[in-house]
């Protein structure tokens, strides 16, 4: 390709950028796409989980590494279990290495996509040029412009950076970040129950931090064991890795033979948990991924949110291209495309906003809140709520499961 003008520029070939390209190819898009990423190759040290595969493209369903029809929550001596018999409500996991292998095998064969790995680029469009050209970058000393630009680079995940993005924030208002450090563990002995995932095990909390262990057993001999913290203070991922190693060594995941396990690799990261953080906006660039708030603020789940958005955005882009072709448009000026649909439905954003306000106000209450969800909501309703497909009845069940006083107080009391 090597052109000075393309149709679409994508900065960052992460989950959001790659999913958009897959959706565009799936819908027959033939415009020129330029992809630039700072990394030499995709980051495969991660997993993505979600409930049900009904909104997953058919071609991706084979990527599901494991489904669980049972998942659990535990706090102190209490344990609550959800069970479903429906694959539409099952808890699913896709490994990043499988996703990128599939995606790259498909996308690198597509002639209208040009890849630049291990490459940095600078956004150079000003307000004046943005109106005329859409977006522009400097790539290897050359200016490249496009009608559309999608940016997931430089995602706002650091606590201080996230805090600065909260509009009209009161001086003493904190935000919650999700910190996680997880080990891929193997064992010579069959120590894991692969039929059940522990979503929140050993929940504990103080005034600043809610901690639990997340366990995904893929078979009797291997599992992802992850220490997770929702915290208003800055946590050390290296300290969390040490704590996770100790959990494994102590066998605190439900066995007494932690010394028989081997840690194969780690995955770790930080995610902002705040509906007040607005998508980063630069000129005509569309922010995507975490940078574009394509994440469920109350939980950190993003995979299916991004898949739904990618399908929608690709349809808008393809329909615009068809309309231009049918109208015989030959000008090279930018054709305005407006994406009116939010990645996360507004109702869920509002509900998450209240829930997170309760958490910020009284973090020590977190184990009680999640235990109430687990105890009083059936598996199907929980799965639908977590996947943004809840019925009115599901919503009522979720609201009724929560203690009323802290939520009413959060609704009427401004934060200080």
Layout: helices, strands, pairs:
Elements: E1 5-11, H1 15-26, E2 33-36, E3 47-51, E4 64-68, E5 70-75, E6 78-83, E7 91-95, H2 96-107, E8 113-116, E9 122-123, H3 127-133, E10 135-139, E11 142-151, H4 159-164, E12 176-187, E13 196-205, E14 209-219, E15 222-231, H5 237-250, E16 261-273, E17 286-287, H6 303-327, H7 346-361, H8 366-376, H9 379-386, H10 392-401, H11 404-412
Parallel strand pairs: 1-2, 1-11, 2-8, 5-13, 11-17
Antiparallel strand pairs: 3-7, 4-7, 5-6, 9-10, 10-11, 12-15, 12-16, 13-14, 14-15
Helix pairs in contact: 1-2, 1-6, 7-11, 9-10
Explain the overall architecture.
By secondary structure, the protein is an alpha/beta fold. It folds into three domains: 5-72 and 91-156 and 277-327, FAD/NAD(P)-binding domain (3-Layer(bba) Sandwich), CATH 3.50.50.60; 168-273; 346-412, no CATH class. It is built from eleven helices and 17 strands. The protein has helices spanning 15-26, 96-107, 127-133, 159-164, 237-250, 303-327, 346-361, 366-376, 379-386, 392-401, 404-412, and strands at 5-11, 33-36, 47-51, 64-68, 70-75, 78-83, 91-95, 113-116, 122-123, 135-139, 142-151, 176-187, 196-205, 209-219, 222-231, 261-273, 286-287. The strands form three sheets. Strands 1, 2, 8, 9, 10, 11 and 17 form a seven-stranded mixed beta sheet that branches. The protein has a seven-stranded mixed beta sheet with strand order 6-5-13-14-15-12-16, sandwiched between helices. Helix 1 (15-26) crosses helix 6 (303-327) and helix 7 packs across helix 11 (404-412). It is globular. The termini are far apart. The model is unreliable at 155-172 (pLDDT under 50). This is Lycopene cyclase.
């Amino acid at each position: 390709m090597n052109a000075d003008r393309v149709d679409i520029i994508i900065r960052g070939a992460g989950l959001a950028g790659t999913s958009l390209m897959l959706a565009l190819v799936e819908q027959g898009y033939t415009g020129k796409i330029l992809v630039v990423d700072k990394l030499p190759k995709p980051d495969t040290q991660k997993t993505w989980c979600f409930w049900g595969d009904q909104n997953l493209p058919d071609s991706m369903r084979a990527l599901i590494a494991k489904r669980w029809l049972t998942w659990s929550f535990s706090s102190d001596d209490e344990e609550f279990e959800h069970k479903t018999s429906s694959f539409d409500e099952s808890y699913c996991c896709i490994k990043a290495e499988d996703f990128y292998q599939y995606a790259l095998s498909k996308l690198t064969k597509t002639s209208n996509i040009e890849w630049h790995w291990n490459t940095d680029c600078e956004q150079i469009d000003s307000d004046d040029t943005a109106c005329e050209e859409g977006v522009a970058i400097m790539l290897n000393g050359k200016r490249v412009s496009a009608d559309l630009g999608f940016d997931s680079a430089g995602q706002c995940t650091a606590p201080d950076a996230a805090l600065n993005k909260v509009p009209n924030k009161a001086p003493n208002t904190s935000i919650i970040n999700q910190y996680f450090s997880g080990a891929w563990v193997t064992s010579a002995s069959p120590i894991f129950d692969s039929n059940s995932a522990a979503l929140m095990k050993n929940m504990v909390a103080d005034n600043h931090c809610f901690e639990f262990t997340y366990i995904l057993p893929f078979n009797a001999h291997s599992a992802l064991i992850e220490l997770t913290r929702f915290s208003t203070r800055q946590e050390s991922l290296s300290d969390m890795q040490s704590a996770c190693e100790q959990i494994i060594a102590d066998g605190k995941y439900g066995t007494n033979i932690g010394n028989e396990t081997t840690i194969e690799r780690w995955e770790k990261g930080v995610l902002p948990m705040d509906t007040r953080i607005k998508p980063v906006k630069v000129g005509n660039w569309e922010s995507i991924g975490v940078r574009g708030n394509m994440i469920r603020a109350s939980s950190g789940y993003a995979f299916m949110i991004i898949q739904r958005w990618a399908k929608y955005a690709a349809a808008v882009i393809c329909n615009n291209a068809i309309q231009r072709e049918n109208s015989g448009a030959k000008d090279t000026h930018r054709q305005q495309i407006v994406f009116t649909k939010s990645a996360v439905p507004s109702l869920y954003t509002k509900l998450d906003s209240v829930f997170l306000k309760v958490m910020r106000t009284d973090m020590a209450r977190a184990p009680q809140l999640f235990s109430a969800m687990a105890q009083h909501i059936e598996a199907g309703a929980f799965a639908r709520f977590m996947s943004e497909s809840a019925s009115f009845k599901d919503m009522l069940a979720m609201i009724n499961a929560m203690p009323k006083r802290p939520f009413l107080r959060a609704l009427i009391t401004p934060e200080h």
